[in-house]
Hints:
mainly alpha
Amino acid sequence: xxxxxxxxxxxxxxxxxxxxxxxxxxxxxxxxxxxxxxxxxxxxxxxxxxxxxxxxxxxxxxxxxxxxxxxxxxxxxxxxxxxxxxxxxxxxxxxxxxxxxxxxxxxxxxxxxxxxxxxxxxxxxxxxxxxxxxxxxxxxxxxxxxxxxxxxxxxxxxxxxxxxxxxxxxxxxxxxxxxxxxxxxxxxxxxxxxxxxxxxxxx
Length: 203
């Protein structure tokens, strides 16, 4: 791809990633409640989901994706269900000052597949890659080298933006030091997480 084409794609993709949605809400809520533990795996799942949809769009598999719509529907509800589980864990978590002991919900593989499922079933990335991307990138002329370049830019952009969200949430988390404040954060982030699950499941 030309540098101009890559920069145009990067600007559009960065805007899409930066705009708040259920995924960003889930990430911020989780970091506020649990800290940065597991955040890289959570972000990696979002990236993997975006790369899947980019591959579907770039290889002309959009029609095939519609054929297997039931698979993405299952992934959507599985991701939403796991978010609800995380929301319940946050709501019932003890208001402990200091580091929270690692829980089963902190396991990187679980977090990775949770965010991957959310992305595969979230209308936001689906619309971006199957409807908006073709207006920005001529997919009919996309060479393997261009595919790799775009994938590399996606990795840097998404990791940077979501990593920034996570760091900002982690910094804000330090402000809550009393048990009462921690309890409020746990309950509030649990509600946000549940809201993100409902938003994804009902779209």
